[in-house]
């Protein structure tokens, strides 16, 4: 039975090391393999603000023996099928230039070279994805925050160059990402932006889970942002309605308190006058 298992930096290195050995056993040593980690896995091996991911997105350049080796290692460590995959190549965030802009990470068993993505290209990919219900926005601010703390800040023009190099022009980005790039990234308060975006993403995920439970098989890539916005407005209206109800109850309680005080004052007045 496969369960969704969190992958940490240490466990990822363990899996990649085991994968290299299994691949070498099946493939021999004449034809090495290359993997470029992207997405959450690239964040994991390069930064400290993300502690885990649940799958490993990658560009995989290897013989057909790699697919079998991936499945064998998945079985060995009780990982789900597709724990290491190249599915993102079917998404808008993929670019055929990723290999040439990738940077070296590690070599395992002298057969598997693992590479990753430099910060500005990683941000460019996250901007192109721009999912409000995943970790895309918080990952952007997390990368900017860590570089800011380490004294190696990433400037806006470097990100813009990376977007253009990977995707041709800025206008190909989703609207939310264009706005982020033009109006937010120069703010500099990345720590607070990271924390706020994590909360926003958590809320978005909860709302989409709630919607999926109520409306199975309706969510699709093309409608998810519209549905998410509708769910947010629905929750906001419910919150405002609840807040209004609390205000009405508070007003009623205050009215009762004033009335009770008035009665007590009148009783006290009558008692005092009666004694006189």
Question: Could you explain the architecture of this structure?
Answer:
With 276 residues, the chain is an alpha/beta fold. It contains ten helices and five strands. It is elongated and about 110 Å long. The protein folds into two domains: 9-200, no CATH class; 230-276. α6 runs antiparallel to α9. The mean pLDDT is 87.
Low-confidence runs = none
Strand % is 5-15%
Major sheet details: 5 strands, mixed
The largest sheet has its strands arranged as 3-2-1-5-4
Mean pLDDT: 87
Structural class comes to alpha/beta
| Integer-rounded radius of gyration | 27 Å
Helix content: 55-70%
Number of extended strands:
5
Write down the overall geometry. Answer: elongated
Measured distance between first and last alpha carbons: 88 Å
Continuous helix count? 10
Counted up, domains total 2
Please trace the helix and strand order, writing H or E for each element.
HEHEHEHEEHHHHHH
């Amino acid at each position: 039975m496969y369960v969704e298992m969190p992958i940490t930096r240490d466990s990822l290195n363990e899996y990649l090391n085991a994968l290299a050995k299994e691949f070498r056993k099946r493939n021999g040593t004449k034809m090495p393999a290359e993997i470029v980690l992207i997405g959450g896995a690239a964040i994991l091996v390069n930064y400290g603000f993300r502690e885990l991911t649940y799958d490993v997105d990658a560009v995989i350049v290897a013989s057909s023996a790699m697919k079998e080796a991936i499945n064998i290692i998945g079985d060995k460590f009780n990982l789900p099928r597709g724990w290491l995959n190249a599915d993102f190549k079917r998404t808008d965030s993929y670019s055929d230039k990723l290999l040439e802009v990738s940077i070296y990470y590690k070599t395992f068993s002298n057969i598997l070279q693992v590479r990753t993505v430099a910060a500005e290209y990683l941000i460019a990919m996250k901007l192109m994805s721009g999912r409000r219900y995943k970790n895309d926005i918080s990952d952007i601010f997390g990368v900017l925050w860590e570089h800011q703390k380490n004294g190696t800040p990433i400037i806006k023009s470097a990100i813009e160059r990376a977007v253009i190099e990977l995707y041709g022009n800025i206008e190909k980005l989703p609207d939310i990402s264009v706005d982020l790039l033009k109006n937010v990234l120069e703010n500099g308060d990345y720590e607070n932006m990271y924390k706020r975006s994590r909360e926003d993403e958590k809320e978005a995920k909860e709302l989409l889970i709630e919607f999926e439970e109520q409306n199975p098989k309706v969510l699709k890539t093309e409608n998810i942002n519209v549905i998410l916005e509708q769910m947010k407005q629905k929750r906001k209206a419910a919150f405002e309605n609840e807040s209004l109800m609390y205000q009405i109850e508070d007003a009623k309680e205050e009215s009762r308190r004033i009335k009770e005080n008035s009665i007590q004052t009148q009783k006290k007045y009558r008692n005092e006058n009666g004694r006189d």
